[in-house]
Amino acid sequence: MNERTVNFRTIGNAALDLLFPPSLYCNCCGNVIDESRTYNLCDHCIAHIRWDGSPVKDLGGLKVLRCTEYGLYERTLIFALKYNGKTYIARDIAQIMADRLSLAEISFDVIVPVPMYAAKERKRGFNHAALIGKYLGRLVSKPHLAHGLLRMDNTLPMRGLSPTERSQNVKGKFAINEKYVKMLKGKKILLLDDFYTTGSTALECYSALKRAGAADVYLLAFAAR
Fold it and tell me: Can you say how many angstroms the Cα of residue 210 is from the centroid of all Cα atoms in its chain?
């Protein structure tokens, strides 16, 4: 997919937003709502999302925070963003994350999304984690480095892999973008992703950030098991 195709897709999504404003429909089920609904979710869906308010957990030095548990409604939201082109949902997920950060009272310096492999990102037209990170950065007034981390090689889909296979699948596949080393060294990093399962991807990203001199790394995931 070339740059012109990606631009046309972006323009197309913007046009759809004008024709079918996202605040008219529930992000999760598509039922008609009004603009007063929190996160653009209907009463039914917001009541069935399993919100999480537990403390930060430590995973080998990586501090992990989630907004929700992983389930049907949470997966539906992310899949609508990633695979159905409903990029406007990124704004509401960013708001959910901003509220979660406020509740946890976490301080950090810069947002870095988990990267996609470049060819895969070009094919989809966007990196969903980076899109969420862009809106989150605006909400919390923090810099967002969309390409602070790089995925050096393509990986297999994680679904269906065992924990050991997941770890091997991503081992050594992430590196710091040299352009941003000075912006990351000595800083508290908020690593951003949609799902967190075994932590294999997050830990590889954490290792790359620590090698670049990051002082501390938090992972904020929208949903986690």
Answer: 20
